[in-house]
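User: I've been going back and forth on whether these two constructs are worth ordering. Before I decide, could you fold them both?

Assistant: Sure. I'll take them in the order you sent them. The first construct and its structure tokens:
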Amino acid sequence: MTTLNSKVPKGDNLSEKWSKYKEHINLVNPANKRNIDIIVVGTGLAGGSAAATLAELGYNVKAFCYQDSPRRAHSIAAQGGINAAKNYQGDGDSNYRLFYDTVKGGDYRSREANVHRLAEVSGNIIDQCVAQGVPFARDYGGLLDNRSFGGVLVSRTFYAKGQTGQQLLLGAYSAMNRQIARGKITMHNRHEMLDVVKVGGKARGIIARNLITGEIERHSAHAVVIASGGYGNVYFLSTNAMGSNATAAWKIHKKGAYFANPCYTQIHPTCIPRSGDYQSKLTLMSESLRNDGRIWVPKNIEDVKAIREGKLKPTQIAEENRDYYLERRYPAFGNLVPRDVASRAAKERCDAGYGVNATGEAVYLDFASAIQRYGKEQAKIHNINNPSESKILELGEAIVEAKYGNLFQMYEKIVAEDPYKTPMMIYPATHYTMGGVWVDYNLMTTVEGLYCIGEANFSDHGANRLGASALMQGLADGYFVLPYTIGDYLADDIRTGTISIDSKEFDDAEKEVKERLDFFINNEGTHSVDYYHKKLGKIMWEKCGMARNKKGLEEAIQEIQEVREDFWKNVKVPGSLNEFNQELEKAGRVADFLELGELFAKDALNREESCGGHFREEHVTEDGEAKRDDKNFAYVAAWEYTGKPSEAILHKEQLEFKDIELKTRSYK
């Protein structure tokens, strides 16, 4: 085992590290940038912003996405907002407070220097996006509006209704289009990266498959950037797009990039409950709804039974018979506790028998109090004396609609109930992955010249991500961090010239890719790819989900190995190689998930503590909260691939906390 070098700048105050570091790194002059190629895999907020910025600087960028357009990246699904320490509300926000909240929210399992840098550049992101025309919500005076999110006591979340991800992605996409038109970005839509190519130990290209024709292509560059998102679909059912996958990240892991903290996954507390085995994905209800929605279950088990049997409606339950359990357990933060805390609390109530839907896996998210509050406020504003109850409801619903209208509309279409009149039903679901490819301060992996940004890396969120911080990290990496740090590396490549694709390294990588694809097409199996994906997802949810224990994790490792062995013997992939073949695409992705899932369980078994989204039932406090072990586990677990997930070698990056006191996380 080696100790990893994070390459965090030595000395200086934490608040000065990034600014001083930028002042002393190597630069590439504009004329030389024209001679350097960079591959960017993924065109979501991280990849799109990186591609646009690098091309704007003068580099030749080759961008790849498996979708038909960069604007179809999963970033488009983000709803609630993006954090930044602008302090527009005058409520005491600052870069330090954003830094502190993020480290605390991650349960003290993230790298201080990276998180502080994220907080520093957060304000620049908002300025950049406003300049691009992103239509952020504004207050009455025309200034940008903010709302609160979980785990903080200030309002720092900028938003565009419930479509923030879409609007931010369109901003990045417009910046990309400008560079595509100039010829600085060569866009490869409907292409999937299937391997990275190393020449002399450095990342020098990729092997990609044209998903329309099936053609295998070689692409070279002086550096490769992976921005392919997270691995939440290892659970099969998640809030991720069905196409979201871990293949790019897993391929580079198998070529030498360490994979960090795979057990750190986030279960989002406000999702539409699962309705049956036929589902292929779950739907997120934005955390922003917890600003105004109150979460509760009935106090009396008799009321729960009556609701399940259809004999009682939630609106008929008196206020004194409702258990607003987050407000009861966490009075300081109430309904705005972090996601991991809210998710476990919902699970605890449902496990105790208080779940309110037919499966017993749902709690209420109720807007009645907010509608009343806003309605009475609006009546005063409009000088309406003694307003009727119907008028108060009308005025209040109009305010709620202005803030969350598209989310309410989406809920009603899926559930066929009006959330203005009846409380929403929600339940936790797999959402975001804090684990990912290990990167140093420069966002470089353990492979020279190979970078990883956005959700695909592990760097900023520790064991739990605060809401509205994913968009912040993706755009920070792409717009304001990578363009500096990659230049420091590429300064040594100004005389290298074009990287040839006619080399043994490219030959070997292409041969390996083709052999795997040939296997899938020619294997005479009996089960579909989804058959195995669902089996894996069931194991992951039941034994590596919201709660984990030693026995379950050991069983999960064994069961995943058995499913993987059966997959390679009995998977059936219809169609042919040289055509549009989505089953072939899925086969490769599920093969990767079947390896990643085992490493996930291995990592969770190794981490004998509870922290953030990783909750070990053996390690809890007397009142049921997560119990960290800072003496033995205040480190990043970075795994080296050696042939099998079961044989992965653990490397540790010890975490240091110099600017924040390492203490028990509390939201009470």
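The second construct, handled the same way:
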Amino acid sequence: MMDKKEKILAFMREDAYKPLLFGELVTVLDVPKSEIGKFESLLMELEEEGRIFKTQKDRYGVPERMNLICGYLQGNEHGYGFLIPDDENMKDIFIPSGGLNGAMHKDRVIARINKKGIGDKRAEGEIIKIVKRANKTVVGTFESSKYFGFVVPDDPRISGDIFIPKDEINGAKSGQKVVAEIVVWPAKRRNAEGRIVEIIGDKDEPGSDILSIIKAYNLREDFPEEVMREAKSISQTVTEDMIKGRRDLRDLTMVTIDGEDAKDLDDAVSLERLPNGNYRLGVHIADVSYYVKENSPLDIEALKRGTSVYLVDRVIPMLPKELSNGICSLNPKVDRLAFTVMMEIDKSGRVVDHEIFESVINVNERMTYTDVYKILEENDERLIERYKDLCGTFNTMKELALILRKKRMDRGAIDFNFDEAKIILDEKGVPVEVKKYEMTIANNIIEEFMLICNETVAERFFWTNTPFVYRIHEDPDTDKIEAFSEFVHNMGYTLKGINKIHPKALQDVLEKARGTKEETIISTVMLRSLQKARYSHINSGHFGLAAKYYCHFTSPIRRYPDLIIHRIMKEYLKGDLNPAREDLLNSRLPEVAKLCSDRERAAEEAERDTEDLKKVEFMKKHEGEVFEGIISNVTSFGMFVELENTIEGLVRMSSLEDDYYVYNDKTYSLIGERSRKVYRIGDVVNVTLIKADISARKIEFAIVDTGNTENDEKSEEPDWDEDVKPKRKRKKKIMDEAVILHVQGKKKKVKKIEI
């Protein structure tokens, strides 16, 4: 089926091809009479996928040869949007509000280019066809009037309220969070029409906020009945029959190292020093594929979900808890089935030999990052005594992790350490503390061990030429790299080899900028030049890791790509991969990789939304107070300031009343026309919290004028994607509550949030 589709596409992409009618295609392609129905179905499928386009005169062609682009619409709260093309080498296309033609955020669409992009200016287009609707339901706040109601979407990127006829309100009341099903799609100058299908609760009711986000992303907390029936039928103990043919590693000392609240423990590690001085590292991964059989209800549901979702107050697992927290979790002192990668690593960090096999294991201890850190870095006597039989192993693990990290850095892996927030909630879901999540040597141990394991597996199976799913990170866009090179050149840095950039060249710039005032701005602009990692059936390497081969093997409890490659690896190792099976996998894996990439993006957005929500809730009680922050982004409409605890808010350009400021997009700065005062990314500023808007999940700050109008060696730095923030290596400036500042003629306390 897939081959036939590709043949049709290849024919339509030929230079000599002109759009043909259905009958003409049948004749030219010599379709047998008995196959005409199937051929028509194939064309319909290709049209629904947006891969071919049927004109108003019923002629078929590929969009790219008709000045048309297929992709996804990314809406904007101001009413316009951007087409994100399927072709990742193409730049986004601006779609003005008048060119949306009823398309909504996330819809799959086809657009016509009306104005070509020139220089930095984007191409402009209009939507001419909606291939697939994304928003069958919308979550928002219901508002009623005398004769009708409407739903204001929670997601500001969905422009236009949803009109609700009086007989479709179904008991909803003003101010309630609801789910509206769309029954009439929007059109030019006409809003969508819908009906209320679920009332989540009052917008201020505890729990309804997170539940609204869960519904908005179509995340399902419960599992279908048939999935639960299968999960409950699985034995929670490992029997002797299960371990036949497996290597018995139950006497091998091994541990899991995870966060305190982790329940799905899918990786254990062991480490021995060999007589020749090398290390024997064992990475033992939960053998989920033993329990989750291909095309079973469990497997079908796991693929739909693609990944577990870690929200601020709960986990929505890919697999039911009977597996994710039960028989598949590598809990201590119980037998578990595993898939083991045993690697011999020399003193330079090179894997000189490895084995991959099914095993049965029994984890000695369930360790936490905190306890391992205290043992290794703080010499905690109580913990050292408690784990005296393991302390030597932990020290060897630290030794090997540092070797592996050095090897990775030496080859040019880009070292971005991002600040992550840890949000503490009370029993009612109210945020009581927001602080930075600290990465320690204990985290680094597991990170390095998983990285080397994933690389080893990917390289092994790349050379077997079997169907596979890789984790790839493609080379950055040349235009973006050239712009970055010009930017750092103006700061006195040289980027080598921009025509065929190597990650080491970027890492070298980062190293030279380390500790300087421009470090943050260079890190930030560099981040903007990189692509996003994704899953693919074709190996094209991982640019950020400077790795030729990489995959996700180590988390099959929470990621579907790991689960599917476990199955493939087992089939290969047992000699069960025949040509027919390979053909089936080759036809299926591209779709699986794309689905998993899409589900990963949705999970990341949902996780970020719940974090943003709780951060705003936390700040609400601090309105009017003053804080120290760092400028994290500068735009034409203002600047974003991030506090020490990762909470970020906007300082609007209009709030800068001491001067008229002009945005300089070359230096990512705001410059006062009269005073020449400059605000750049990385500058430390004091801000007043003006507003914490929970419904919009936004924070607004205003700059506190300390009376200093000089440009005192402002740090020179840029603008990054909202989900990426570089690690800052400045000392904390502790602000005492007793410090008094004069702010616009009033005295205010400068209060630091405890983090």
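Notes on the second construct follow. The mean pLDDT is 88. The longest strand covers residues 351-362.
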